[in-house]
């Protein structure tokens, strides 16, 4: 069973639909039940909205330890805030993350930036941007380097641990948009909204044998 | 190598069907929403916007079924607007599979709805749509905000309103020039630029697209992050591929 963790922040229908699309026969469950997460063979940790709210809602549902257990033991896919929460700390509301990985989530600074027509860059970073793969990982299988994925976020990961970086994107600056460490893979973009490339990444996750 | 500017076809939906108006009068059936959405997705649309123009409240629920069906087959961002009034409306649309909800008239009636919904569901899913018209006031003029599909004047200045909406949590602004809508003369670039310069959130330019140069101007001159168009795509004058190729030849980053 694949568990998509629901902690009450936003809409998980898109994530569910994308998994169903690539694997109609798979047993996929949107759940906030720790027993389901424990039983699952693979776990998806999505997230949208503000990180302080996400952490609070996660704790209100007593899901923190389930998420940490899953991230230590089985194929685990973090999406958007689901990536950000894995790290030590976020500037957003000065929030502590789950501390599974070392790094800080920072807000984009668009001072002195310009797009190709000379207009200042907007925040949030919203739309399709290039994902340049920095290592070889099973989740990049059949995805072209620099393929575009859909992003929507105002905060990004800054990590000193370069070994976990699996892809980078340029917006105001180069930032890490995908991380990989052992059984954990997490992305800042939304594969469930990234058309063909996104569905391929989800397919790769389903087939990923850690 | 950077963020791509977006092309967003807009689909008007009523009674479960996509319709297209000719000079705002006669509505013609333009097909099944799922089929139209799939067609634009295959052509390379970066997002889709659905505008529910259903007049009777009886059939309002139909849009939820449409979004549910589209979201099962099309994996790009979907925005839905038209008649969104309450937190519950937003929740229902998001649960049906919308990624963003566009709020227009109800933001004027109750600006707090923008704060409430963006706090609850995140700024990323709240788009505020602003319909503006150049209005004379004494010896100067300003862009005035209109509601109810352009029927009611509000007295509000569109630029100030845009700044306020962004500060209340709108993640994106959809700016339509009523002076240009349906004219095919191009976007009101001054309006788009005036707002784009003042707010940090992305701007979608709308109203007046008649040819591909207009799309380029909206981005290069207006500073828009995305361009929305209906008729040039619906009537088959241009495909989205053609629009993208033209933008690319004008040195605009696009997603291929």
Compact summary:
The complex is a heterodimer of chains A (about 210) and B (about 260). Chain A is an alpha/beta fold and about 210 residues long.
Number of strands of chain B: 12
Average of pLDDT of chain A: 95
Tell me the strand order in the biggest sheet of chain A: 2-1-3-4-14-13-12-9
Distance between the termini of chain A: 15 Å
Query: Structural class of the secondary elements of chain B?
Result: alpha/beta
Overall pLDDT level of chain B: 93
Low-confidence stretches of chain A: none
User: Which two chains touch over the largest interface?
Assistant: A-B, 41 and 41 residues
Q: Which spans of chain B have pLDDT < 50 for at least 5 consecutive residues?
A: none
Q: What oligomerization state is this entry in?
A: heterodimer
β-strand amount of chain B: 25-35%
Going across the biggest sheet of chain B, name each strand in turn.
1-4-5-6-7-10-11-12
- Rg estimate of chain B, integer Å: 17 Å
| Percent of residues in helices of chain B | 25-40%
Order of helices and strands of chain B: EEEHEHEHEHHEEEHEHEHEHH
Morphology of chain A: globular
Count all strands of chain A and give the number: 14
Distance separating the two termini of chain B: 13 Å
Number of helices of chain B: 10
Structural class of chain A: alpha/beta
The ordered H/E elements of chain A are EHEHEHHEHEEEEEEEEEEH
């Amino acid at each position: 069973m694949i568990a998509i963790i629901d902690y009450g922040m936003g809409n998980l229908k898109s994530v569910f639909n994308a998994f169903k699309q690539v694997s109609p026969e798979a047993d996929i469950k949107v759940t906030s039940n720790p027993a389901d997460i424990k039983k699952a063979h693979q776990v998806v940790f999505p997230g949208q909205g503000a990180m302080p709210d996400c952490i609070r809602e996660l704790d209100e549902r007593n899901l923190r330890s389930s998420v940490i257990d899953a991230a230590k033991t089985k194929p685990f896919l973090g999406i958007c805030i689901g990536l950000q929460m894995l790290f030590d700390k976020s500037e957003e509301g000065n929030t502590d993350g789950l501390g599974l990985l070392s790094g800080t989530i920072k807000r984009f600074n668009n001072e002195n930036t310009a797009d190709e027509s000379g207009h200042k860059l907007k925040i949030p970073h919203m739309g399709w941007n290039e994902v340049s793969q920095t290592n070889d990982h099973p989740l990049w299988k059949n995805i072209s380097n620099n393929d575009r994925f859909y992003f929507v976020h105002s905060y990004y990961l800054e990590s000193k641990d370069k070994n976990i970086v699996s892809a980078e994107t340029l917006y105001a600056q180069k930032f890490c948009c995908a991380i990989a460490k052992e059984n954990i893979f997490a992305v800042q973009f939304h594969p469930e909204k990234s058309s063909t490339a996104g569905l391929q990444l989800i397919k790769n996750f389903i087939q990923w044998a850690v | 190598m950077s963020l791509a500017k977006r092309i967003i076809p807009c689909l008007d939906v009523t009674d479960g069907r996509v319709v297209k108006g000719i000079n705002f009068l006669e509505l013609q059936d333009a097909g099944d929403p799922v089929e139209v959405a799939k067609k634009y997705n295959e052509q390379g649309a970066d997002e889709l916007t659905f505008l529910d123009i259903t007049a009777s409240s009886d059939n309002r629920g139909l849009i939820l079924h449409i979004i549910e069906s589209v979201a099962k087959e099309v994996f790009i961002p979907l925005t839905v607007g038209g008649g969104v009034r309450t937190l519950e409306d937003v929740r229902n649309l998001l649960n049906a599979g919308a990624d963003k909800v566009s709020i227009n008239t109800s933001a004027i009636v109750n600006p707090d709805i923008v704060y409430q919904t963006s706090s609850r569901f995140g700024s990323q899913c709240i788009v505020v749509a602003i319909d503006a018209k150049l209005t004379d006031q004494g010896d100067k003029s300003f862009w005035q905000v209109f509601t109810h599909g352009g029927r009611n004047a509000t007295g509000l200045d569109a630029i100030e309103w845009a700044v306020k909406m962004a500060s209340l949590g709108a993640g994106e602004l959809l700016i339509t020039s009523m002076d240009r809508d349906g004219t095919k003369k191009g976007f009101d670039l001054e309006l788009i630029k005036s707002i784009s310069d003042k707010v940090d959130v992305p701007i979608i330019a709308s109203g007046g697209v008649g040819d591909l140069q207009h799309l380029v101007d909206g981005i290069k001159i207006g500073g828009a992050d995305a361009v929305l168009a209906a008729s040039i795509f619906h009537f088959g004058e241009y495909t989205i591929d053609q629009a993208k190729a033209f933008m690319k030849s004008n040195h605009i980053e696009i997603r291929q």
